[in-house]
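Q&A log
Question type: sequence-to-structure
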Amino acid sequence: MKSLVIGGTGPTGPYIVNGLLQRGHQVTILHRGAHEVDFAGPVEHIHGDPHFPETLQQALGNRNFDLIVATYGRLRHVVEVAKWRTPRLIAIGGLPYRAFVEGEKDPDGVPVPLPETATLYTDESGNRFTYLMMLSEKAVMEAHRRGHYSATLFRFPLVFGPRQLAPPEWSLIRRILDGRRQLIIPDGGWRLERRGYAENMAHAVLLAVDNPHKSAGQIYNVADETILPIRDWITIIARTMNHKWEFINMPFSLARPSRPYAGRAHHRVLDIGKVQTELGYKDIVSEPEAIRRTVEWYLSNRPEPGGEVERQLGDPFDYETEDRLIQEYNKATGQLRDIGEVKFKWRHAYDHPEKPS
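Response status: OK
Response body:
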């Protein structure tokens, strides 16, 4: 079977490519050539830009494939170029849910967990990136309905692991390497986020490869089975490096230096029941082990300070500002505590009689 992977050298790509090789596929990858990785067997490389229809057409020429797995580029263009080139398309997208963009402003709130049937984002004048993500999904499924190919679409969460372009783990790893002891966390660090380890996410894609009829025409949320609050994720990273943080708990609105590693104010928990039930998805790497492997990879492949990875991450590592914020926050909270305690005593609402009455 001839398979094309568009991408193939990012976080999930090598696992997908190696999985296809293990299944006896003849694999070609199309990527820009910015990154190269070693695979478990021979893989043909096509260098081209998957972000534009003309460059995709030029790179592929008249070639056809039994399977196309689209992990990178602009999916709405891949959809068009893939027509008449393959009977089977597996597409990787993001999370075009309105609740994840609007958060607490969403009239329906942010359900936990969020199913595939949740309302999608449709405001072209707002977050254009998410709006285009929604349009790309529609293009994939419309091509499926019209019979251009049998399509399956995966909605990926924040993926972590080796080769991530903007790894939030590095914000924490570098702070530990730089000798930081205090860490600002928002709202106690109890925000929940369901992430996806790259190898686990590739495993889900390969389940669709193995179950073409069952997965045809389906959209799946996929993420790791374990759901960790941000503080636990941070703690596992620190434990891997034999480090212990003193957490400085601040309201989200004040904890601005934590944005690169702690993210948004609201929960982001996908419902993955459908992919578990229909395709039998289970993590092949546990969350603690996945975090440990990720940390060890970045310790062995350290991004350059101020280099491309840190620019993509957007973390200034401005320790002077962090220390000043911590100092002023501790001073202000100390003054607030002096105002006085509210005399509240918790009481169970039901009676607890000591004798019959």
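Response note: The CA atoms of residues 239 and 269 lie 24 Å apart.
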